[in-house]
Structures are given as C-alpha cells and as structure tokens.
Specification:
alpha+beta, 434 Repressor (Amino-terminal Domain), Jelly Rolls, 5 helices, 10 strands
Length: 199
C-alpha cells in the first residue's frame, strides 16, 4: 500500500472498531454478522489491509452505518465541499479502471455518489446489497455493460439505467476505449439494521 492507501486503511480500521464497540460487539460477532472471517475483521481494525468494496459493504451493512461513514476522510458537517484530491479510490481495475466514492449521506437513508472509470477489459462484480437498494448509472464517456442478475444492459455515452442493487450485478467495459460513468446508490433504512442486537 502507498501512504495514501495506508492512511485510508487506518481511518477505516479506527471507524470499524469504534462502531463495533458502540454496539458492544465482539470481533466474532461482527465477523458473523458481516459474513467475513474474524481474521479479516482484525486486519481491517488494525489498518493492515486495504479491504475490497465488497468487504467494506458487508462491514458497513452489519454495523448499520453505511459505507460513507467508514471511508470519508473527515467528519460530516451540514454542508461539505469535497475536493477532487480528497476522494478515496476504493477499487482499482486490472486495466486502469478505478471506483471512487465521491460523497455520501448519513444513515438512516444512505445515498452514495460514485465516479467510475473502466479501462478496456475491466470488470467490477458486486454482490447483492441490502433489500430495496437502488442504483442509478449514467455513462459520461465511452460504453459499458451492466449485468443485473440474468439481465444484460448495454449503455453508450449519455445513456442511463436504474435498477435494484439487491441482486448480484456487475459493471464492465468489453470495448477498446476507456469508459467513465457516475453511479448513485440509495440504500434506505441502514441504521435500523442490527442496532438492537448486542453480544
């Protein structure tokens, strides 16, 4: 990890640990609730790994806080200006692509705004999110394919798609040119999950 990735990993680790302790959960309880290994929880809390987007989503859903609460670099005032250099890269593709969480809202109704770039041949697969999650994609440059369950959608520059994110889905660029798209994710009622569970 480079210094920026190490800093982000430490920030995420501290926030995961803080939220786990606020729930009075053990490491084992969080691991079970998030369906990840205990070793992964330990490594995340220690800032020893740069967890995948899927792992971060599992942890944030289990903790009932939403992904932005774990990865944004500053506490959230009523209004927040986010500078381009402060946006964390949470996914890097094998062919130059990247997924950046630009900004997000606080629970209970989480809205995330993402900036995605896919190099030729890049593909990002996402597990199903919590029930009733919606996603809205808008292609800014190039062309992409979005698979939602068994459905396949081909989008070109200017095209948009809305779909339920509570099914397995993927974004890919099977073309020869890079592509870029914005993605909004709406996940309602996040803080209501797991908040009454104690271990």
């Amino acid at each position: 990890m480079d210094s920026h990735e190490e800093s982000l990993a430490r920030l995420i680790g501290a926030r995961v640990k803080r939220e786990r302790k606020a729930l009075d959960w053990t490491l084992d309880h969080l691991a079970e609730a998030a369906e990840v290994s205990r070793r992964m929880v330990v490594n995340v809390e220690q800032g020893a790994v740069n967890p995948s987007v899927g792992t971060l989503l599992r942890l944030s859903d289990a903790l009932g806080v939403g992904l932005p609460s774990l990865v944004e670099t500053a506490d959230q005032p009523a209004s927040k200006l986010v500078r381009s250099g402060d946006i964390p890269v949470l996914w890097s593709g094998e062919h130059g692509g990247r997924g950046r969480l630009v900004v997000g809202t606080e629970p209970p109704d989480i809205v995330e705004l993402w900036d995605w770039e896919l190099g030729p041949g890049d593909r990002h697969e996402s597990e199903a999110h919590a029930p009733h999650t919606r996603e809205l994609a808008h292609v800014l440059d190039g062309a992409i394919v979005i698979d939602v369950g068994a459905e396949r959608h081909e989008l070109s520059t200017g095209d948009a798609l809305t779909f339920f994110g509570d099914a397995d889905h993927a974004y890919s660029n099977p073309h020869d040119e890079p592509a870029r798209f914005s993605l909004s994710v709406y996940e309602p009622g996040v803080r209501t999950k797991h908040r009454t569970e104690k271990h």
